[in-house]
Specification:
- This protein is 34% helix and 21% strand.
- By secondary structure, it is α/β, with parallel strands linked by helices.
- It folds into three domains: 3-247, Aminohydrolase, N-terminal nucleophile (Ntn) domain (Glutamine Phosphoribosylpyrophosphate, subunit 1, domain 1, 4-Layer Sandwich), CATH 3.60.20.10; 251-437, 3-Layer(aba) Sandwich (Rossmann fold); 447-590, Glucose-6-phosphate isomerase like protein, domain 1 (Rossmann fold).
- The chain has an eight-stranded antiparallel sheet with strand order 3-2-4-1-10-9-11-15, with helices on one face. Strands 5-6-7-8-12-13-14 form a seven-stranded antiparallel sheet, covered by helices on one side. A five-stranded parallel sheet has the order 17-16-18-19-20, sandwiched between helices.
- The longest helix is centred in the C-terminal third of the chain and has 23 residues, at 439-461.
- Bound molecules: fructose -6-phosphate.
């Protein structure tokens, strides 16, 4: 969704801004723009374009602007308020075109501020709530003569959520402000930078400071931090950026999704190197310093919800803790569910910025544990403890390695909890840990086997409009994840159904050749009856299992507590190969954004 970048002090601000905006493309957007200050300090040039950053670049190349002062702001917009159009794209400017603002979030009181500003003669050129900020800054900058002081007073008038960057023709600085929307700042040898997503700064700075709610930061000759009253305060603690520039390069792969699928064995290997030594003695759990829960409630959306379902089952199986899973956007339905004593809420979100999850947590009274790939995200900051999944940057919109690492981190945590509570004996803990430790090898071999099978199937199934994913018990969240992956990147209908449920209605949909993916979980014999019913009605049965007769023979040994994780390699490859065969953009499926920051 929307992204912000800013810089102060680079000779050609637009070079940095465009490159940084390209790094944010993966988030999903429909228009882009930049504003840079010109050479004579009276000049502020804003360029916007509907469509990809490439369209913006083409327009800038056409205009051939003179090199500026190295001060600028940029934005990718994912439309919410107001349609997709150039006037609605950011940056937004004041009446004189001398102040530019980019904004992520929603200004709840925009209508009333706009009416007030129009009453004082301001002219609005967009339908976007963010434009009020530019006009408010216009008034208060004229009054105070300081962009920072003006911004402090402007944010005092806003209600809602914002990450914003402001610059002005006559001010050699960029002012940033944040309230419930992420922003980070970092410095290189000759310039200061800001972005709403660290991916934009990987390789440009070695460390960043994360703005907290209501921080104001001025990128001038120095970086100055202000409190909401405008008083100078010490900077926030700086954190080292673990992502290098090459981590966000596509390399030799055809798309990022292919790269990220292939990375899973090594990413899981690195994660387990970190977590496994702390599983046997329970340190992984105890270091989180959380009260011991009597029950768990997982809160998440989409793929992270499927990972939560796996981890909830694993906690139940290994540690005997009752665990439920709640769709984050439905959380308010639980408001009257009674006292929460002994409850630990576990929020699972790769981005840590999903609005549905953050909103759900507003109703949570007790402790919250975040399982996230972004240890400096809004979710992480609002949680009492964080378990980092260390998947590295995931650029493809469809979650792949972040799912796998959520499952592995969650399973390791469940095992560690079982070791602490002694719900499993030492030998059993060691046995499960050994099985966890074998995952990188298992995933690697599933990857090698699944890829060519998926390619052949994609050719065969290109005309199929509906796919079913069937499993039982611990296989069901994986079947649901397989169906989600397929529908989001191929735009084909896909549904996950418990094997025994088919005969209660969905079997009516089976025609000759309908693809049904059957995932076993050490229960092939119990699945056999349902499969026979489907096959006899003409279904094209595609098996993911442990037998040599299976289409994807990628499982082996007894089913572990966390279920058939290796199956994701079959499902991810199939979804991607089919998307490629159908000519879809596997990395940027239509209508979707990487991090869903609207409710
Ligand atoms: C699907 C996908 C989405 C996300 C969901 C939650 O491939 O990526 O379903 O899983 O939007 O996102 P996070 O994990 O960032 O909270």
């Amino acid at each position: 969704m929307c992204g912000i970048v800013a810089c102060r002090g680079r000779e050609h601000a637009s070079d940095f801004l465009l490159a940084a905006l390209r790094r944010l493309e993966y988030r999903g957007y429909d228009s882009a723009g930049i504003a840079v200050t010109g050479t004579d300090r009276d000049d502020l040039r804003a360029t916007r374009a509907v469509g990809r950053v490439a369209a913006l670049e083409a327009r800038i190349a056409l205009e051939r602007p003179a090199p500026g002062l190295g001060i600028g702001i940029g934005h990718t917009r994912w439309a919410t308020h107001g349609g997709v159009s150039e006037p609605n794209a950011h940056p937004h400017r004041d009446c004189n075109g001398a102040i530019a603002v980019v904004h992520n979030g929603i200004i709840d009181n925009a209508a009333e501020l706009e009416a007030e500003l129009r009453g004082r003669g301001h002219v609005f050129t967009s339908q976007v709530d963010s434009e009020v900020i530019a006009h408010l800054v216009e008034e208060l900058y004229a009054e105070t003569g300081s962009l920072a002081a003006a911004t402090v007073r402007v944010v005092g008038r806003l209600r809602g959520t914002w990450a914003l960057a402001v610059t002005a023709a006559s001010a050699a600085e960029v002012v940033l402000a944040s309230h419930r929307s992420p922003l980070v700042v970092g410095s290189g040898p000759d310039a200061h930078f800001a972005a709403s997503d660290i991916t934009a700064l990987a390789g440009t700075v070695g460390s960043v400071c994360v703005l907290r709610d209501d921080d104001i930061v001025v990128l001038g000759d120095q970086v100055t931090w202000l409190d909401p009253m405008g008083r100078e305060v010490p900077p926030r603690e700086s954190v080292r950026l673990q992502w290098a520039a090459e981590d966000i390069e596509q390399g030799a792969y055809d798309d990022f999704m292919e790269k990220e699928i292939a990375e899973q064995p090594s990413v899981v290997g690195r994660l387990l190197e970190r977590l496994l030594p702390e599983v046997l003695d329970g340190a992984l759990w105890t270091q989180l310093d959380l009260p011991r829960p009597s029950r768990l409630r997982f809160v998440a959306c989409g793929t992270s919800l499927h990972a939560s379902q796996v981890v909830a089952r694993t906690f139940g199986a290994l540690a005997g803790v009752p665990a439920e899973t709640v769709v984050a956007s439905e959380y308010d339905e639980l408001a009257a569910s009674g006292p929460d004593e002994g409850l630990l809420t576990i929020a699972v979100s790769q981005s840590g910025e999903t609005s549905d999850v953050l909103h759900a947590l507003e109703d949570v009274g007790g402790p919250v544990l975040a399982i996230t790939n972004r240890p400096h995200s809004s979710l992480a900051r609002r949680s009492h403890a964080v378990l980092e999944t260390s998947a590295g940057p995931e650029i493809g919109v469809a979650a792949t390695k972040t799912f796998t690492t959520q499952v592995v981190a969650g399973a390791a945590l469940a095992l560690s909890f079982a070791a602490v509570t002694k719900s499993l004996g030492t030998t059993a803990v060691a046995r499960h840990a050994l099985r966890l430790g074998s995952l990188p090898g298992r995933l690697e071999s599933a990857h090698t086997t699944a890829f060519p099978v998926a390619m052949a199937l994609a050719e065969e199934l290109a005309e199929s409009r509906t796919f079913f994913f069937v499993s039982r018990g611990g296989g069901l969240p994986y079947a649901a994840e397989g169906a989600l992956k397929l529908k989001e990147i191929t735009y084909r209908n896909a549904e996950a159904i418990p094997a025994g449920e088919f005969k209660h209605g969905p079997i009516a949909l089976i025609e000759k050749g309908t693809p049904v993916l059957v995932l076993e979980n050490g229960d092939a014999a119990r699945l056999a009856g349902s499969v026979a019913e489907l096959a006899s009605r003409g279904a094209r049965i595609i098996r993911i299992g442990s037998g040599s007769e299976d289409t994807f023979p990628i499982l082996s040994g007894p089913a572990p507590a966390w279920g058939p994780l290796e199956s994701v390699l079959a499902f991810q490859h199939l979804a991607r190969c089919l998307a490629v065969t159908l000519g879809r953009d596997a990395d940027k499926p239509r209508n979707l954004a990487k991090s869903v920051t609207v409710l």
